[in-house]
Amino acid sequence: MLLEHGTALIVVVALAAGLSVALLAWLLSDALASVPAEDRSYKDAPPLGFRLVWYPIHWLSYFIEPLISARRLATIQAQLRQAGLDYTVTAPQMAASRILGGALVALLCWWGLGSFDGARAGEAGYSTTLYLQVMGLGALLGFFYPSFWLRDLMKARRSELLKTLPFYLDIITLCVEAGLNLQGALNQAVAKGPRGVLRTEIQRVLRDIRAGKARADAMRAMADRLNEPNVTHFITAVIQAERMGMNLGPVLRAQADQRRTERFARAEKLAMEAPVKMLFPLIAFIFPCTFIVLFFPIVMKFMHPGV
């Protein structure tokens, strides 16, 4: 009798668990079906890390977007513009990548620690506290890694921009002094200049102008996207010179000379900082190895004087 009741209870519990899983699956599928498809016909392909988990990022961004403040979204969007990703990912997708990255790295840490735990045959397993600590550290790393990656990308773009800006200004100055207008000079800079951030931004300015946008507004939009003082000063000087009817040649020549001087100053500053940055590797890694190589024979002679 007890066995029959026990079997019936197991069947009821199994049916309840199955129905619960089915209900959760139905709710999840219904929620995912409500997420609208994204039109990416005019957008660039996302980076590799985003492509690997793109659908979870897109689904999660749809649900967390109402929970993020407008100010925070504007800040993330400004960072994406500076990194050149404003037509690649949106601000909610960037926030979703942080949450998803934290969850994935935490699960990876749990799996890795469990693999080592299972290999310790005949010993007591790791404690739950250790699992939680390792998963917490992994979650923090995965959560903040997209921000670190975005910051490094912004720094790399800024460095490339400052390196190529004097060259582009020289091309634009020569074209204007040769008789071309500013738009023609920008076209020649795009045609003759090296590939990079500035070339892409100038092409975008030319597309905006061809689409009917005022040249001053298109250049101001470029300054807002790059958020670089050197570019802002150049665009402000050009717009003011055009508004006052001044000759653009001397203005552009002065801007080019100033940017080139600033570039040499930055190079000298980096060259002077190099010895200071080398002190820690020298003291921490190179000097100990050198002392070991030099003093090991002497110490061995003192330890074994008769040998």
What topology emerges from the helices and strands here?
Layout: H1 2-33, H2 48-52, H3 54-64, H4 70-82, H5 91-119, H6 128-177, H7 182-192, H8 197-210, H9 215-226, H10 229-244, H11 248-303
Structure description:
The protein is mainly α and 307 residues long. The model has no long low-confidence stretch (mean pLDDT 85). It has two domains: 112 residues; 105 residues, Receptor-associated Protein (Up-down Bundle), CATH 1.20.81. The longest helix is centred in the last third of the chain and has 56 residues. Helix 5 packs antiparallel against helix 6. The termini are far apart.
Instruction: Determine the mean pLDDT.
Output: 85
Taking all Cα atoms into account, the compactness measure Rg is: 30 Å
The separation of the N and C termini measures 89 Å
* Quaternary form: single chain
Share of helical residues: over 70%
Tally of separate domains? 2
SSE class = mainly alpha
* Number of β-strand runs: 0
In the predicted model, the low-confidence regions spanning at least 5 consecutive residues are: none
Helix count equals 11
* Main sheet record: none
Shape: flat
* H and E string: HHHHHHHHHHH
- The fraction of residues assigned to DSSP E strands is under 5%
